[in-house]
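2 proteins. here.
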Amino acid sequence: MATATKKRSKVTLQPLGDKVVVARDESLDTTAGGIVLPDSAKDKPSRGTIIAVGTGKLLDDGTRGKLQVKKGDRVLFTSYAPETINIDDEEYLLMSESDILAVIE
């Protein structure tokens, strides 16, 4: 279990159950051909780094299932799934572990 805290911030974000907190990767400022993109034309990447994980999904027998991802993993996720949270001008994404498609190694 890990919590997401920003330096100099008093806010702590602890996901519950099978939820994870992800910091989305920055979008590219230029194309491969060198064209500079304005903010309105940038796609939000569907990849990021996990900065906090919950305790795991509660199973029918009352135990907690172990999460397949951990803090620090780089992941790909579905673009429609995450809930956006802003803490001290930083954007974080809160999503279920099932919304993660793959771990980038």
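next one coming up
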Amino acid sequence: MRMRRKKHLNERIEKVRDVLIEMQCRGEDVFAPLHEDKFFNSQRVFGNNNPLYIEIGCGKGGFAIKAAKLIKDINFIAIEKNPNVLVTGAEALMKDNLPNLKFCIGEAENLTHLFKENSAERIYLNFSCPYFKKSYFKNRLTYSRFLKVYRQILVPDGEVHMKTDNQNLFEFSLEQFSQNQFHLKNISLNLHQSGFKDNIMTEYEEKFVAEGLPIYRLEAVNKKI
């Protein structure tokens, strides 16, 4: 079921502009030039050159806010394509006033409109939509067209950390990462029974764990040729 548009969404977005960064868009002209001054610049956004971690499909931002509170020497950008969802996290961030986190409205395929090559040390994919219909598999955030974008913006040996409750998506993702020059490590078929430390739980994860469902997790290392 599609989420009902929040009341006064545009006004609410305007009130959280201080914690948002903009992803430039080419619109209908896919060959339009990108503006140099609109690419991510760590000094301009965060006032430092700390390592950058990106969460793609951040939803309401619970994971990103927890992570930014715990890991203060890392800069975080949490990206969500649906402003109707993201605004909740942005409003929470306005109250918390965390200096190392920003939100961004945008889509994964357009990450290179914001980030230059070798920009990020880590990408998080937390409980991405599994797109159950076989005809929709190219929309999965671990499909090869997305992995090529991640490889471009990640530094050499940068990592993608993925978690999901969906076994089919996990198996699909293992195959896609392997076929796209990522090296896999720390693969878990039941994260909460694995003894893995320093896990930051999302809202979905808390729900699934309470229901006794296994959480699948992997780390994929960007080995550039």
